[in-house]
Amino acid sequence: MCNWASAVQLSLSQIGLGKKAPGAVGHLSFTEILDTSLKVSWKDPNEKNGVLTGTATRISWEEFNRTNTRVTHYLPNLTQEYRVTGLTALTTYTIQVAGMTSKGQGQLSSSTISSGVPPEMPGPPTNIAISNIGPRSVALQFKPGYDGKTSISRWQVEAQIGIIGENEEWVMVHQLPNEPDARSLEVLELNPYTSYRFRMRQVNIVGTSPPSQPSRKIQTLQAPPDISPYNVTLRTASETSLWLRWVPLPEWEYNGDQELVGYRVQYSRAASKEGVLSHVISDRLEREFTIEDLEEWTEYEVRVQAINGMGSGPWSQPVQGRTRESVPSCGPTNVSAFATTSSSILVRWGEVPQADRNGLILGYKVVYKDKGSDSVPQYWVVEGNTSHSVQLSGLGKYVLYEIQVLAFTRIGDGRSSRPSILERTLDDVPGPPVGILFPEVRTGSVRLIWQPPAQPNGIILAYQITHRRNTSNSNAATVDVLSPSARQYTASGLKPESVYVFRLTAQTRKGWGEAAEALVVTTEKRARPQPASRPTVPQEDVQARSVMLSWEPGSDGLSPVRYYTVQYRELPDSNWTVHSASVNHEASSYIVDSLKPFTSYQFRVKATNDIGDSEYSQESEAVTTLQDAPDKAPTILSVTPHTTTSVLVRWEPPAEKQINGVLLGFRVRYRELQYDHLRSFTIRTINSPASNWAELTAPYSVRNLSESSLTQYELDNLSKHKRYEIRLSEVFVGEAVPTAPPQSVTIQSSTATQLDVTWSPPPLDSQNGDIQGYKIYFWEFQLQNETERLRTMFLPELGVKIKNLTGYTTYMISVAAFNAAGDGPRSPPTRGRTQQAAPSRPSFLHFSELTTTSVNMSWGEPGQANGIIEGYRLVYEPCTPVDGVSKIVTVDVKGSTPLWMKIKDLADGVTYNFRIRAKTLTYGPEMEANITTGPGEGAPGPPGEPFISRYGTALTLHWTSGDPGRAPITCYVIEARPSDEGLWDILIKDIPKEVTSYTLNLDMLREGVTYDFRVIGVNDYGYGSPSAPSPSISAQKVSPFYEEWWFLVVIALVGLIFILLLVFILIIRGQSKKYTKKADSGSHSNSTSLPLSHGEMVRLDEGRFPALELNNRRLSVKNSFCRKNGIYTRSPPRPSPGSLHYSDEDVSTKYNDLIPAENSSLTEKPSEISDSQGSDSEYEVDQNRGGQQKTHSFVNHYISDPTYYNSWRRQQKGVSRPPAYGYTQPEPLQGGLIQGLAPQCQGTLFRPKGSRTPTPSLLSCSVSEPPSQHGTLLYSSRPPSSLGCSSTQQPPTAGFSSFV
């Protein structure tokens, strides 16, 4: 019996048998598959829906599609495997397993297995196609892959959602079980208007296949939003507006184009179906809206829905809110007035219409004023809403009043009633006439004038004048009654120098009124009054806004004082101001009111009689009024919730002039508004007429602030979710913005376009409620104003992936939390940089200098580098094959510069396609352009064939002008090409149009290379056709003769001959000296040496040998060749061959200028001393070889014997030569070189320091040199001589020699 690996074809079918039946068993599998048996394994159902008791599992098997062969077994509940036996080999069986409870059998799990066939891992599906794309579903068609020799039990669909890319995550979105023959399936529960890319896997009993190739990218259709905004709240904003807030939809709930996503707000009066209004908000990120133009003190119901391009989503749950209290919008109705007395009027009114109350009516004010005057209206306040009448008292008599009534609420006064009510008080007796003066006074008569009473209190019917002498015993009085229009009266028959009393009274319907009295003296000696005394102000009479002045009257000048005038001025700089010009003449004190508190004043007084005014009295001492309460309350700038139980009050103090003293502090009054959540109000009757409006609401709490510089204060320990009045500003307590930013903001660079930002929430004590979300502000570094963007998260998550960023760019990110009250502070900006990415395409692609075979191509840097530009890749190819060949050329440009390239291998008249792209980590998109080579239409024709003339290292090209084309030629261009390469390139540009030849230097070309040249004309249409190529010419330079090889060889040979000749001469001289020394030693051994005469010369003239002349010239010291025993002696004479003679003639006078002074400095060049140089002493003898020499002439000796003549050539190393002077560095003298006399050579003079006799030095001279080239100057120094010299070493002597 064979033991095969399991080959199972699963097709699970789940059949529901009841609500309480267990679910399907899990992990059904087959192992140990043999020809006649197999082992079945499973696990308990995930949904047992009861207790598996008793026979808890049912298993059955049957041959495929043959139910009559079914075998069933019931197993205990702990059994999870079973061996099925009695099977037929190579037969397909269906095996079913189900759980059991007391409620019955659960869902079946079935599998089909074919024995005898080894199963394998399945292959991936192929040929995935997409159709029937809807908002929430698509249909997939596919071709099954390799099934692994078993049936497919399940199809799996994976998708990339939203963001599609190679590195994006694949998510399981759909599974289709128990359909092995499926060739298509429908993927459900997709998100509308979302990008998807799908792939599939197939599953059999062995495992899951690899994924298929991804499908094409698709986008589901749009659909209306599925959900409504949540967390909708409504708060009072003002008397006519409500503040609505909500949490916007997340992006995946838009279900459509985000540009078309918005919100619709619907609002109406509460419990009213009429007057429904709506407003559309087009900003998808908006989360608040202020509903304007509402009724004051009215409750509204508001709801919100999301909308997109396809329609509207569901409405949110309605919320309710009431607008703030306001002042009544109209006055009470039915206002009436009735005069009850001459000084009182009874006013009555009705209710304010309900719609116009705009709050709780706390009382009424009756506004009244004299209609005929410009005085300020007066108010009579009636507290409470129960009284609708008032008796106005203290009114003027017989005055016409204009009366209005208004209602007031907690906020302030409403509008006055319309129209105004006019009512006049009853008449009464008049007041006294005013302004009595006596302009004319005589000893027997007087004339007086007056004005009507200030309070006529009715219609004036008559005036009555009474006058009498002002004496105690005068009882007789004269009475006259005048008409009401009279304004003057003349009394006559008076006694001179007497005092009279005049009384004047007016009459109305109610009778005679109060009389006015005046005194007059019948005299003609009247004068102006004298000034009053200096006013005084007792300190006890100083108040905050008034003071009492006291003074003593001066003399009246025999004319009684009629009135006083009081002036004041405010210190330090104010002018004098009249306070009153009608102070009673009998007064000696006066109360000055309407002054400013805490201000310094001075006062003065003057009197006035019938003659005129007195001088002003002296100014009083400075008086400072007392302090008073400030005239104006501080201005409340804002009241904002700070925490859930406190508010922050900000205010502005009153102006300095309104403080009225030293500011000590502030007092904050606040109270809770009890009626905030009331939907109806109960009328409360106040029986006490003294009740005030504060009793209708909660009493004020007071906090005193003793710091005068405060401008804000936090009111804490308030109740949550209550509305408070901060006298008089209203605020809702219980909601406050977060007071701290999110903590620990970190940034991780994920990709080139994505940054992962994480943070921690604000501290719990600073959140002030539930955090509803976060706002992420991000911008490019140092470009905040230009690039700042906002990403809002409406979920309290602690991280976000910011995508669609620019590669390799530094960003600054700041995070702020928000709750229902608003936004909290931002966190400090944190820096992060995206990774490198492919750059954008180059910004431009330009072509210039287009010829028939070349073009200059330039490009711009990518607009977004997205990293460090490593180089560019240029690809160009002909659009059509050239000669049957389409050559593609790829050029890699390393580095970010240069941004141009010369393309030279193009064909004439061919259109080429150029593509270039930049590279960072990878290549970016291409910039592409086409261009056709060859002259464009209107370009110049070809110039004439150039010919070339050559002058040394310069080449001159000559050409003739060709057809200029459609525009004049602007310039010429010369192209060149090496003959062996065949690529033309521009060599010279911008040659003036007038020029038909051009000279160029060979240094511009590569030496030794043969070049062709051609000329191109240029006009406004571009480069024209090139001329025919010039004859080829080599760029080899023509060197001067002295740089030719043959000249150098000749110079080398001449030099060699010179060296050989010089060596030969030196050898001959050396041998000659030895011969002469030997001959002279025998014949002159006993002779006395004689000093040499000055000017002795030795000349040698042997055929082709140059003449040698030795000249000795007297210097500043004596010359000698040898010194012996302190006596200068003459050296032995030389032998005298026929061609050699001596001369005692002095050196020619032309040498005189060439001999340097004794302090001349001579330098030497050891490198120029000849190796064949002999001794410069003509008398030194080699003792070892002297005896072997013959005693004949040294000239005949060497001439007759060729062996000796050429002996210097055969001399070997080690053979001794005539000894020469050793070379030592002499101490130079200050001087210069001495040039020789002969035109063929030069000589030098060298004399060491301290020498007494010039010594000839060897001279090298070439007879073959041209006259312009001189021989080399040679210097040598001699050691102490061994010939006839003293044992004491002498310094070397110096001398010179020259060839003549």
From TrEMBL:
Keywords: Membrane, Repeat, Transmembrane, Transmembrane helix. The chain crosses the membrane at residues 1045-1068. GO terms for cellular component: synapse. The keyword Repeat applies. Residues 1158-1176, 1185-1194, 1252-1275, 1288-1300 have a biased composition (Polar residues). Residues 24-120, 124-223, 228-326, 331-428, 432-526, 531-628, 633-739, 741-837, 841-936, 939-1037 form the Fibronectin type-III domain. It comes from the Eukaryota. The keyword Disulfide bond does not apply. Residues 822-841, 1126-1145, 1157-1194, 1212-1234, 1247-1300 are annotated as: Disordered. Residues 1276-1287 have a biased composition (Low complexity). One of its GO terms (biological process) is homophilic cell adhesion via plasma membrane adhesion molecules. This is Sidekick cell adhesion molecule 2. It comes from Salmo trutta.
